[in-house]
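**Fold tokens**
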Amino acid sequence: MEHRLCPGNPGRRLAALGRGDGGPEKGAGSEEGKEQLKLDTGVLTPGQLNLLLTHLPLDISFVDENDKVRYYSQGKERIFPRSPGIIQNCHPSASVDVVNRIITAFKEGKKDMADFWLETGGRFIYIRYFAVRDQKGTYKGVLELVQDVTEIRQLEGERRLLQW
């Protein structure tokens, strides 16, 4: 059975999600005439968006509505390594059926989120899948977030900004 979260090779550009007109913009108002992406709450250059995504303390993968990997983050410390050459085998074979059921439930509109957690190598890993839908509710893909929450789980009490 083909794995629906990791088929084929990922695209090099982030899928056009949430952009006002769905595309980049050049010219007036853009930083030194550089290409900029209009988002719902701001405007970024592709370079800024890439930096933002690679500096998040979690791994991100996006698979579109046609089950094609469109993006995965490549931060300093990926929890589960990915590369274009191994993208089809990114989940253990025992979990492929479950991942496919999650995606089917997302596509059918039965679910919008699924989360899991596991301990591996002394780390506590939190994995979340989100259905990505447009403003009309049409399924546009699945977003996978993977985060090492080992240190977060050990927090107690509070530490306020002014205590920094």
Q: What stands out?
A: The chain is about 15% helix and 30% strand.
